[in-house]
From TrEMBL:
Family the UniProt entry places it in: Belongs to the eukaryotic ribosomal protein eL21 family.
Pfam short name (any one): Ribosomal_L21e
Swiss-Prot/TrEMBL GO biological process terms: translation
InterPro entries per UniProt: Ribosomal_eL21 (IPR001147), Ribosomal_eL21_CS (IPR018259), Ribosomal_eL21_sf (IPR036948), Translation_prot_SH3-like_sf (IPR008991)
Entry's localization field: Plastid, Chloroplast
GO terms of molecular function: structural constituent of ribosome
Record-given protein name: 60S ribosomal protein L21
PANTHER family per the UniProt record, alphabetical: 60S RIBOSOMAL PROTEIN L21 (PTHR20981)
GO cellular component, as recorded: chloroplast; ribonucleoprotein complex; ribosome
Amino acid sequence: MRTPVEDTILDCECWAVHFEERQVKMPHSYGYRARTRDMFSRDFRTKGHLNATTYLTVYKRGDFVDIKCNPMIHKGMPFKHYHGRTGVVFNVTPRALGVIVNKEVNGKIIKKRINVRVEHVKPSKCQKENKGRALINDTIKRSVRGEELHAKHQRCYESLPQDVKQSIMNKERVNLVRTPIQPRKGYICKLDEELTTIQPAPFSDLV
């Protein structure tokens, strides 16, 4: 016959063995939307109803879009893996878009085709710089050749630097290749006072 103290000790030992066998690791929840508390939270001062621009934006096939899930709209929400990724539109429906997104699976990158509602996407700016630079180069080439400038080329020509416009007027060669940032130029620093050299004093043993 065991005493109550012995029963308590035996229960504690059994619970410890059971806990070691389970090897509980946190987190142990692997749901479809697990660990998305911060990912699917709205930004500061952006909560509330959606504006009309979300639904009036025109998307065409071949456009680049950024996938950003809106937790207020549960319909057509993509999987959490695609949140924050950029894809290409391959299909347009009345309320949703078909987007091609790259995904790494077992060391290989495959093209996934997903359907996402328009509330969870926005036009991407990944090609804004490239298209702007291409327009500037095309405007300069047309101006040097004396070709007709369309409305977009005229607006771009007005924003060109003054030295580039002067080169175009003089029919000079304009370098269209981007150059990296060059190191700072050297210069001579003139001092009004006499230069003083400071150096550490030699060590002398006090013993």
